[in-house]
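**Folding the chain**
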Amino acid sequence: MLHLAIGVGLVLGLSVGLLAAVTGSDFLMAVAAGSEPFGTAFMSAIRMVIIPLVMAVIFSGVAKLGDPRKLGRLGGLTLGFFWLTVIPAILLGMAMSWLGLRFTPDLAAPLATDQQAPELPGLVDFVLGLIPDNPFAAASDGRLLPLIVFTALFAAAAGTLPDKPRETLLNFADAVSDALIKLVWWILWTAPVGVFGLAAPVTAQLGWGLIQSLAVFVVSVVLGLVIYLGLMYLVPLRVIAGIRAKTFFGGTFGAASIAFSTTSTVTALPVTLEEAKKNLGVSEHVADLVIPLGASMYRAGSALFQGAAIVFLADLYDVPFPGTAVGGALLATFLVSLTVAPVPSSGVMTLAPALDAVGIPLSGLAILLGIDRIPDMFRSTTNLLGQITTAVLVDRWVGGPEGTTLGKVESQMVHEATRDQSAVYD
């Protein structure tokens, strides 16, 4: 329902702006310009919750893993596959978006009046800038990337504490996250009006070209997901596990259908577990660990979407995107993609740190929110298929039947470290 309402707001905003651009009507131009404060208020509300929400979910996601030394071989292989395959997803998304821009008109959306593209640092300054000398000052200044690095390191340290203090910190982080998520839901119910107020003025200035660019962006993302699925999942499945594409898709059809229609991997979790064990032969102790863990922190499809969105919005707002900016965007997207903000279209909502690293206006998020339903269905399905692929490959690597290689104790240890995590969207 909310996706539909946001979509309607976007369509109305694009329509009013397009009609104003085509007809030159003073009335429609006044309507488009007059709606801008609604968009400004909506984005201010989003900015209000972005920093604490990102900090809370990253802390909770990292700290719940516990002491990395205790994860064992099964947990190490699983996390290693997650991390190694997320980076190619981001880079492929950037590449596909860059190629797609060859087929879009030359546009330059106006920057906010109070915002200028920042002067990007060199490589050494960029690395030094990741270490905040004062995390509170970084939060006050809105510097998200060093704040994320601090939060991830703090969470990793918290994960090594004894059970009682670790649980205290986790319970606090979870409570903060739950309250912020409730606030985000309230803000998102104003999104149809906010999206209208952001889309109408921009479309009135850019005309039909903006609509063409959005269509090319969606196609680029979907094609990128298809390529990624083939290279990173189907090829390893065939080479390592001996599973053909037809067998894989046939054995995961039920779970994939649920993820595609609901844009939620956790909704499909019971069916995913059953199909992985019954149809693909994944041993029970591997499936019961890897798939829930993947649902909580592995969203390569979302990472690809975010990589594509960064390049698209940088081009739309005419923001320079040199090599150091790629590094900052890559790091921010990598860290955020391994945590979860259980809100609608979290792949869009959690783009803020990466956009901040490049200097792209956050108003671009609202434009993406309106078209997100279509790429969300495809990337959620890719996320789920990636979680199942990981389970199949890890099962082959560790030796299959329960107890032959790892034993129940190690599996249970990792399972307990991740039992409270879940991925609701994306």
The chain has a mean pLDDT of 78. The first helix runs from residue 2 to 23. The radius of gyration is 22 Å.
